[in-house]
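Journal club side-thread
Mid-discussion, someone asked how the predicted structure for our own chain would compare to the paper's figures. Pasting it here so we can look after the session.
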Amino acid sequence: MKKIFIILFSFCVIIANAQTPDEALRTAWFNQNGTARVMAVGGVMGSLGGDITANHVNPAGLGFFKTHELVLSPGFSFNNNQFSYRGKDSSTSKSNFGYGTSGIIIGGNHGGRSKWTSTAFAISVNQLANYNNNIQYGGFNNFSSFSEKYLEELVKDRADTNAALSNYIFGSSLAFRTYLVDTIRGPGGAFSGYQSLVPISTGVNQLYNAQTRGGYNEIAIGFAGNMNDQLYVGGSFTIPIINYSRDLTYTEKDATSNVNNQFSFFEYKETFSSKGAGIGAKLGMIYKPQEFIRLGLAIHTPQFLTMTDRIRSSMTTNTETYAGLLSETSDRLNSGNEGVARYTLTTPYRIIASASYVFREVNDTRLQKGFISADIEFVNYRGARFGTGNENAENVTLQNYYNQLNETIKDTYKGNINAKIGGELKFNTWMFRLGGAYYGSPYADNVLKANRIIATGGLGYRNKGFFIDLAYSHIMNKDFQFPYLLEDKSNTFARQTGYRGNVMLTFGVKL
């Protein structure tokens, strides 16, 4: 298999922890979240309107509101992960609370005083992605080692021993100081390069264990207008807020019983967090060529985020008779301080086209019998971009690094289509809903056949200005996890399957 990623090593202590392509994907490849009603119909909201989630999908849908409404959407999620890594299968699970679209809508009927039949304003919050998970897998590997990424870093930078001791305090310096990586001496004891003490040829047992937390949240302030109950236009100003953290423990242990091969094990630990906020916009329109047909189009501009990453790391290595048991921490090498990296991230744009058929479309929603709706969404995953930010705008080394990283993102990802379909049957005050969705792979390499298939359902009750909706979505996931990335070898990875279940309950009241 050809190389999946090219990782860039042309940086030293000036970058506390290198950003990688998967960080860009974390803010782009996610499932549509919203109220229980939206979740139950597969995430469809491009042309339906009449739900506060429209503020985060197609703000023109707010134009269907002519009264005030308050909405709350608590939720619960549970992950059931299956991993296959180098022939060994494993599973993990993680449950946590979350939320869907919640907020307030203020709608008003103009009563013939304007060409606009009605207008609506909304402020809402939605969790676009939930990062709470447990990623754990392991297996036997006699092809590559985590330690080789340190070799590549030192060799690529042509680092001397002084640099190896002090310039890579969150990675290679930990390996060098614990003798996981050591020098090669030529004739006369002259330095001639670096070597890993890991006996790759006889193999090691690897274990990757990461606990991740946080979410990708979005505040949206939207406004929409309704012209003659036929054309609806709207826009929202968005404020994305990201909070992601990961506690990682990675180990490699000698797979043989040889106590004299100068390697027993090493363990790398890392505490990492990434936080940021930014701005963005969403624009849309919905047109009703006939009373029972709705056509929608929405554009999500890239979101511009200012990010701050923080990291602490440590390593313990046992090289037996070579140097024994040694430990080192980034805190000791960095005067007790965590590593900090500040940068900018621009997310990909999205375009959503949608159509809905509403059975017996009339102004009195009590007489509507249901609908069927579908969305087609294009996401340009390869359009994510990292930048230095104002603080490091004059740093040429950082600029070059991010330019190379952005080229890597172009090679690693591609644009792809997400498709959603859903429907509702209405029996006076009760509603029954079903839906489904397919999210295509963001990876350019055809070897990585990733996707997400979602089945959804739910029911709702509306009466006398009060409503309550319940939904369940079953997300069947196919993805890949890389324990480490190398430039000089093909990368090994774990195949991830399993599912994620989401339960959403929405309460709403007309004010």
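Post-session note: Residues 1-16 have pLDDT under 50 and may be disordered.
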